[in-house]
């Protein structure tokens, strides 16, 4: 009926309203999608599944990244005497910080002369507040020496280096030794008796600090120290390589002088002076040996004990 606005789809006005567009979808639908990818790149295709399987097999054959060899943290040696002694004993250093307007006494002059003579140590002048901040308020006396992080070897490198040189490995592993001076003393003994390095655990053990460097009397520059994520596993790895693991224990079954295995490839495990070897490490050892002490002393520190056994091993090797 004319004028009936209730009829469906009936226009009641000649004026056009807003038209909703497609947003370009129709135009884009007409555009090409490029060349068809190869079958090996199409998800779900049999060739794609074959390519993925081959990639997984190649990744499994790839050697796992070796853990260990991680760097430690940088260290600050503070004070005029400690800085001078560190420079004199060959402790590696990157920067010597000197306080502005410092009293130029003999120790300061000697430290500056040693740092300058090396040629690879930066000399930096800094105000006292800056040195206070760097050292967390320690009594630096105007001299601060920055020691770079130590670059640890991997335990496997010590044995492989000896085998490559045609020698039987002679290695010392430390179990629970927390005094850096003991570590430095062991490094010095290993160097003196022709050993191939020292192994320390990552946790609850001494690291190669400035104190360890000083005690080693410069031998740390040529005797590598390796860091093991798990000492027991590192020892088991040595055993698989044909190396005998000998642990020092007060109640060992053999005396040091009676063990012929010290003349071959060997790892000598030394525990802490108080607790000795941990249970797992002790159970991993092939032999437990004792050092006879007729004088009645109950124990020796790690540095001395390692030196005694290293001497016997070197004597047997001729």
Short descriptors:
318 residues, alpha/beta, 35% helix
How would you sum up the global shape? flat
Low-confidence stretches: 59-70
Derived from helix and strand composition plus strand pairing, the structural class reads: alpha/beta
Give the strand tally: 11
> What is the straight-line distance between the termini?
125 Å
Which sheet architecture does the biggest sheet show?
Answer: 7 strands, parallel
Rg (C-alpha, Å): 34 Å
Q: Secondary-structure element sequence?
A: HHEHEHEHEHEHEHEHEEEHEH
Total helices: the number is 11
Mean pLDDT across residues: 83
The fraction of residues in strands falls at 15-25%
Oligomer: single chain
Strand order of the largest sheet: 7-6-5-10-8-11-9
Q: Give the proportion of residues in helices.
A: 25-40%
């Amino acid at each position: 009926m004319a004028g009936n606005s209730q009829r469906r789809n009936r226009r009641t006005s000649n004026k056009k309203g807003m038209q909703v567009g497609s947003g370009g979808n129709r135009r884009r639908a007409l555009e090409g999608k490029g060349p068809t990818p190869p079958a090996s790149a199409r998800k779900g295709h049999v060739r794609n599944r074959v390519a993925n399987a081959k990639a997984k097999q190649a990744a499994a054959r790839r050697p796992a990244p070796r853990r260990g060899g991680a760097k430690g943290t940088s260290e600050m040696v503070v004070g005029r005497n400690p800085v001078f002694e560190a420079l004199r004993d060959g402790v590696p250093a990157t920067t010597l910080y000197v306080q502005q307007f410092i009293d130029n006494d003999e120790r300061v002059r000697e430290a500056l002369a040693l740092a300058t003579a090396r040629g690879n140590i930066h000399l930096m002048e800094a105000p006292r507040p800056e040195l206070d901040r760097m050292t967390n308020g320690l009594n630096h006396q105007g001299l601060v020496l920055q020691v770079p992080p130590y670059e640890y070897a991997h335990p496997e490198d010590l044995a492989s280096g000896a085998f490559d040189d045609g020698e039987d490995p002679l290695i010392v592993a430390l179990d629970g030794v927390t005094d850096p001076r003991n570590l430095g003393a062991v490094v010095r003994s290993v160097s003196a008796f022709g050993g191939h390095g020292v192994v320390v655990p990552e946790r609850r053990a001494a690291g190669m600090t400035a104190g360890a460097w000083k005690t080693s009397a410069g031998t740390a520059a040529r005797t590598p120290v390796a860091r093991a994520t798990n000492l027991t596993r590192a020892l088991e790895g040595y055993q698989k390589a044909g190396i005998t693991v000998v642990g020092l224990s007060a109640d060992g079954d053999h005396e040091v002088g009676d063990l012929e295995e010290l003349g071959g490839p060997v790892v000598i495990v030394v525990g802490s002076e108080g607790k000795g070897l941990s249970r797992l490490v002790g159970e991993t050892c092939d032999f437990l040996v004792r050092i006879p002490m007729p004088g009645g002393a109950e124990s020796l520190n790690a540095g001395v004990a390692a030196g005694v056994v290293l001497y016997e091993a070197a004597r047997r090797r001729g």
